[in-house]
Design goal:
This protein is an alpha+beta fold. It is built from two helices and ten strands.
Length: 180
């Protein structure tokens, strides 16, 4: 399969239990990616719960996005994706090349839902959190068990944007077989 054959590498290419390619009729190639150089590391401590539940805290929605991601993967809870994936818009899928594309958020939701409910997650670890001007970037490591009972690791990067309700929504997504 190649880019000229009607298929492109799918967002979950590194998973053995999901389709590795996506039909190009479902996507739009784009150069429009978030370019931001002023990321600030966010000190994320999963055991520090104080600010997480204080709705007045400026960090509340950051922790809420992190918690939603973890619940989706660790508990196979597709409903945890509801706040994270906007409706009637586009999600950009990047792959560290110039072949970035957008797909409808409803398609991305369905595929992400298949991922979290159809994969045997062993660990989902947040490795880095960064913030900047209404943006949030979360790097995660997903360890899952494949059909041959071997543990495999996929690295993910979620770039999110703050919406009008002050919740973060995924606007870009990337997976890799290599650590970020």
């Amino acid at each position: 399969y190649g880019y000229q054959s009607g298929f492109s590498i799918g967002p979950f290419y590194f998973y053995t239990n999901l389709p590795g390619y996506i039909n190009t009729s479902r996507i739009q190639y784009t150069d429009d990616c978030i370019r931001y150089d002023e990321w600030r590391d966010f000190r994320y401590n999963q055991d520090d719960r104080y600010d997480r539940y204080d709705r007045r805290s400026s960090e509340y929605t950051v922790y809420q996005a992190i918690d939603d991601l973890q619940e989706a993967f660790l508990y196979s809870d597709a409903q945890s994706l509801d706040r994270l994936i906007p409706r009637r818009t586009w999600i950009t899928v990047t792959d560290r090349s110039d072949r970035n594309y957008r797909l409808r958020s409803e398609d991305f939701y369905d595929m992400m839902s298949d991922l979290v409910t159809g994969t045997r997650t062993r660990e989902f670890y947040i490795s880095r959190v960064q913030t900047g001007r209404g943006l949030l970037r979360i790097n995660a490591q997903h360890v899952y068990q494949d059909a041959w009972r071997q543990n495999r690791t996929v690295y993910m990067q979620f770039t999110m944007k703050e919406n009008r309700s002050r919740n973060y929504e995924i606007v870009e997504f990337e997976t890799s077989g290599n650590r970020y």
